[in-house]
Design a protein that fits this description.
about 110 residues, alpha+beta, single chain, YaeB-like fold, five-stranded mixed beta sheet
């Protein structure tokens, strides 16, 4: 899967080991690294459903959240203009690119 970031600061915080550890702490940083590796290895978004620890959640406003353990969530949006079902839900097997928009240290409700 192709992964991009909303800005260069977030890209550096997610991809640089030292910056990631400093910004997100010793608990979240290794989980974030692992989750980004899992995203990159996936062919399409639906593959994340096979990872129960990721707890992929989608919202009507287009947000996707992936768990980073009990202490954080990775916020994503589908890249490009993926097809949707009649009710507006993403066709997850057709999503091959993701945009990382945020890492929230307290899980979203």
């Amino acid at each position: 899967m192709e992964i991009s970031f909303v800005d260069s600061d977030l890209a550096q915080a997610c991809n640089d080991d030292a910056v990631r550890a400093q910004r997100f702490g010793p608990v979240v940083a290794p989980v974030l690294r692992r989750r980004l590796s899992e995203l990159a290895a996936a062919v399409h978004l639906a593959e994340l459903r096979r990872l129960p620890q990721a707890r992929l959640r989608g919202y009507a406003d287009g947000r996707l959240l992936v768990a980073l353990g009990p202490a954080a969530d990775l916020h994503l949006r589908a890249g490009g203009d993926p097809p949707r079902l009649a009710d507006g839900q993403l066709i997850e097997w057709a999503v091959h690119a993701l945009l990382v928009t945020d890492v929230q240290l307290a899980p979203a409700v």
